[in-house]
Amino acid sequence: MRKRPALLPTTRTSTGILVNELLLAQLKACPVCRGELSSRSDECPGCGAQLAPYYEQIDEANRTLTEAFNAVTRGEIERARELGGKAQAITPLVTENVALLQARIALSEKRFADAWEKAQGLPDTVKEKSGLLHEIVSLHEAETTGKQHFNLALTSARREYYVDASYHIERAIELIPYLAPVWRLAVKIELKRDRYEIALQHLEEGLRRFPNETYLASLELDRSAP
Ligand SMILES: [Zn+2]
Predict the structure, then answer these.
(1) In 38, 68, 195, 217, which residue has its Cα 20 to 30 A from 31's Cα atom?
(2) How many angstroms is it from 55 CA to the middle of ligand 1?
(3) In angstroms, what is the span from residue 7 Cα to ligand 1's centroid?
(4) What does pTM read for this prediction?
(5) What separation in Å is there between the alpha carbon of 49 and the centre of ligand 1?
(6) How far apart are CA 178 and CA 212, in angstroms?
(7) Are residues 121 and 42 in the same domain?
(8) Alpha-carbon gap, residue 98 to 168, rounded angstroms
(9) Which of the listed residues 127, 154, 176 is the one where a domain comes to its end?
(10) Domain stops at, among 80, 100, 127
(11) Are residues 115 and 177 both part of a single domain?
């Protein structure tokens, strides 16, 4: 027997919020008699169970999940985790959706192996699965390439080939801006080239991303000293 898709097509929740088709869980079977439910109704056509309480739970869990996915998009990972746990506690019917959320969270934290494992564990009926797996692979490749550019920038800088070093560190910035050493090296290289304007831009962007980075913070301190 062909498995039914786990998730609903794009639709509105009872609050009227338009949610992505991939984020919604649905009541596929009656929790009392396990009979398949083809459309939303207050009463199970098979056993007469009152379904409204289950739909209310699912709606609430779906709203919570939608918020969680939005939080990932905004980079609010702790909030996303908290909301995922909340959705799971409301109803186990969102388990797959929460697994998808966890894969997204792992990916946004660049924990590639973890993201891969979580995404692989999703049933094939989850439409987002193959797209997510591709995304994980391509971001992982980008990180590898970014680190290679970082190493080339470092090698060039050590040989005092600062023009080459600039080129490679710019590529690294494009690919792996979420790693602090990239910003440290970028500032050092541009200072060596007396390109203070660019060094300052890198310093500011680096500090915005890593406010506690010791080297960058010490430069900032020097700059603001009288
Ligand atoms: Zn029933």
Answers:
(1) 68
(2) 14
(3) 20
(4) 0.75
(5) 5
(6) 14
(7) yes
(8) 39
(9) 127
(10) 127
(11) no
